[in-house]
Design goal:
This protein is an alpha/beta fold. The protein is 35% helix and 15% strand. The protein contains 10 helices and 10 strands. It has an 8-stranded parallel β-sheet. Helix 6 packs parallel to helix 7. The radius of gyration is 19 Å and the shape is globular. The chain starts with 33 loop residues before the first strand and ends in a 12-residue tail after the last helix. The N terminus is likely disordered.
Length: 323
């Protein structure tokens, strides 16, 4: 989830002829199951409302709950999903886990805790008792600064406790500075499983030295088997129109894929936040055309196998695959 979306990504690389192509909006049938490792759940109608989305967001400000998601995604072969926190309120960890527990399509949730807070250890221990609690998310979100926060007393100890609990540390909305901090965390807490979300959406530096530093950070992270990357927030809008030409996306996606390898890449739709750019069917259409360039075994890893390695989720109903 990001509160500000870029409208153009490397638009200069496109020609006018290749920028826009029609895509099908019909459900694509596939025998390959899909585990969506990045959706958001919220209900603006509940007492007290929600901190996000905002009331003036005509696309997002309505209940986003598992029933709605399942009806939308099932025709495309989605058999399960992981909910990623969408609130800075600690009480919403319990709300999210309750909603997830009530809907077997949901295989787990990533919550929101501050590792340097006084009640972090007790909250982590309490939430960890719930097998649907898979970890926490932290990064460029909720007015937080990970580069500053890792220097605060107790923060790194909190991440070490997360690793000891065999839970995930997930980033939020990466940019080059956040990627650099994630590299530092991976070095300081080598046993911590890390998921970097939305990497295709991260701004790539254009200045030579900054680009070299960014690439060095990514390659260093790629050497660590506990670091995973989501190919999420992929669709781009230019001049008010969704870009659907695969050639536009292929180069940047290949760079990430080739850097981290087919065992460390995950699928995430970013529903419903992605609806501000492209509806679910169009997002999945772009992704499927990209993964069609990969081997069937690599695509299978991307769509569900790697998510088990990253999150250690367990099936809750028939049709959800197991490791």
């Amino acid at each position: 989830m990001t509160l500000q979306r870029r409208e153009i990504l490397k638009l200069a690389t496109l020609t006018a002829a290749s920028a826009i192509l029609p895509i099908s909006t019909e459900a694509e049938t596939s025998t390959r199951p899909i585990l969506d490792a990045h959706i958001h759940l919220f209900d603006p109608t509940r007492p007290g409302g929600v901190p996000w989305p905002f009331k003036d967001d005509t696309v997002l400000y309505k209940p986003a709950l598992p029933g709605r998601y399942e009806a939308l995604s099932k025709p495309f072969g989605v058999v399960g999903a992981i909910a990623i926190e969408a609130s800075p309120l600690s009480s919403d960890n319990d709300w999210l886990l309750k909603v997830v527990a009530d809907h077997p399509i949901m295989v787990g949730a990533i919550g929101n805790l501050i590792p340097s807070s006084q009640n972090y250890a007790s909250e982590l221990a309490r939430l960890h008792k719930n097998p649907l609690f898979l970890g926490i998310r932290y990064g460029n979100l909720w007015d937080r600064n990970l580069a500053e926060d890792i220097t605060k007393p107790g923060f790194l100890d909190g991440l070490k406790a997360l690793a000891q609990a065999n839970l995930v540390f997930e980033s939020a909305n990466p940019n080059p500075s956040l990627v650099a901090v994630i590299r530092k965390i991976a070095e300081l807490v080598p046993d911590l499983r890390i998921v970097i979300d939305h990497l295709p959406h991260a701004p790539v530096p254009t200045e030579k030295a900054a680009l070299e530093a960014y690439n060095a950070d990514l390659h260093a992270l790629a050497q660590r088997p506990g670091v995973f990357v989501k190919l999420s927030e992929i669709p781009v809008v230019a001049n008010g129109t969704l870009i659907t030409d695969l050639h536009y996306y292929q180069g940047p996606l290949d760079t990430i894929w080739n850097t981290f390898g087919e065992d460390r890449i995950l699928f995430g739709s970013d529903w419903p936040n992605a609806d501000t750019t492209a509806p679910f069917d169009q997002t999945l259409s772009i992704v499927r055309r990209y993964t069609a360039t990969k081997s069937p075994s690599a695509a299978e890893k991307y769509y569900w196998k790697n998510s088990i390695a990253a999150y250690r989720w367990r099936p809750r109903r028939l049709g959800q695959p197991a490791a």
